[in-house]
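User: Some background: our group keeps a shared notebook of sequences we're curious about, and every so often someone picks one and asks for a predicted structure to add to the entry. Today it's my turn. The entry only has the sequence so far, pasted here. Could you supply the structure so I can complete it?
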Amino acid sequence: MAMKKRPKPKYRQRLGETTTTRPVNTVRLNVEEVVAENTEQTIVRGKISGSDVKPEVDKILSTDATGKVKKVEVIPDKVIIEGILKLEVLYSAFKEDQSVHTFRTDLPFTDFVEVRGARPGMNADIDIVVEDVSLTRDPKCADDWDVAAVLKVTARITETREVNAVTECPTGFKCETERMKVKHLVGSGNKQVLIDKYFELPPDTPDVDRVRRCSCDVEITDTRIIKDKVLFDGKVTLECTYTALKDHKPVHTFERTFKFNDFIEIKGAEKDMDVDVDAMVESCTVEVAEGNACKLDVTIVLNVKVRVSEERDVDVVTDIEGATVKTAPLSMESPVGEKCKQVVIRDAAEIPAGKPDVDKVREITARNFTITDVDIVPDKVLVRGKVEFEVMYKSMKPDHAVHMLHRKVHFKTFIDVPGARSGDNVDVDINVEWANAKMDGCDLVIEAVLEVCAKVTETIEREVVIEYTLPKPTAPPTTAPPGACVPGTTFNYTIVQGDTLNKLAARFGTTVQDILNVNPQITNPNLINVGDVIKIPCVAKG
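Assistant: Of course. Here's the predicted structure to add to the notebook entry:
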């Protein structure tokens, strides 16, 4: 368990009489502070039915699983997570040729992560990694499969806090200052987006008798910021299994993609600021239109959250010598290192059963990137992930029709980042620089060059001054009273609040230049500090 609690404001008391001064020169920062973070392993169990799968399943060859968050609720000391385990199963068919097929299905789950300090209204970021998944045939029903998946769920609770940090040292005092790079939260907001559409199935697809099961995936494809607004584009991929309107009622599937765009108002948002947009599918329903079995009514509700931030370099005061200060913690991300590495991936497999043979590949496109695991070991970042490719090809059929197939290619690599240590923060970015698809015998071979970049930072916390109390001026101690001062000699004087060399020269009947002549340590006549002891030259009276 990794847990971090927010410190309370601190006071550093100085002895002696004081007078309160409200700081004037401050900067207001909205910072998103980590309240606590916790990672737990959980096991999701459930049952999926193979009765809808055609051809029938003989043997499971492999299973690919990803976890999607559907809803998050923060309650005292806990985070409730509703999610979906998305399964893609590769199997050999119960046929003489034992051809290889795939089917996809969803398994909903609800779980919680204990996070001490979590409270309703706080922000929660959830990360789910599927570490293992197994499917076992139900001995009582050959069409059903028992699912057991091991998930690593991380819940990070944050809270937006306003800090008014002192940026200038009070005149006449010595201060400790530090330049900090902080992420200032400009604003955040959320919005429900409704997709409500009718659509018809392709002409060669049988009409729908009953929709059995549907799943929706949402992806944000583009974001833009204009003044006081965040604009976003996205797409929802809908996949459904249905019973056809035929005598023997065979089971079929269809897939449809819906694009959407919208905006959320964020006061203060400007172009070139950083924006984070997160979308979740709250509900996804599909019904057959009344009186038209080839027309479907889809209703999808999305919850979109937006956060706009900017990095600021600010000079803050961390201590004031001789004053009582009130401080507050301020976190900053300090860069450790950023490196990139090229990774070559290659995958060869036969064309899926039911797809026509390939005559010529027309286009290959990388559609989705998924980081499945990231680990930091000393001076290295280990990355595991997968890339989904979409291949468009001309078939060998007489009509040379164009077909499409999808394939996920897994990869793993490491990136050298000197100074990286376990517990640091890391952001991983993937870019496909080149991709190619070709036939090699009976196999379709996909080759690609990836650029994988890792940016490692560490969180550093500093105590910054938000209020201070200054001491009252005291009478200057002298080693000899001015009245008894012998011309040509000097006496010691201790600087108090409000003193300047001009005032001291007028007070003791001398000049600023004469004071500087006997105090070579003063390099700037406009900068003297409370508590400094200087020499004042004695002058003849009358």
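Suggested note for the entry: The first strand starts at residue 10 and ends at 12. The radius of gyration is 34 Å.
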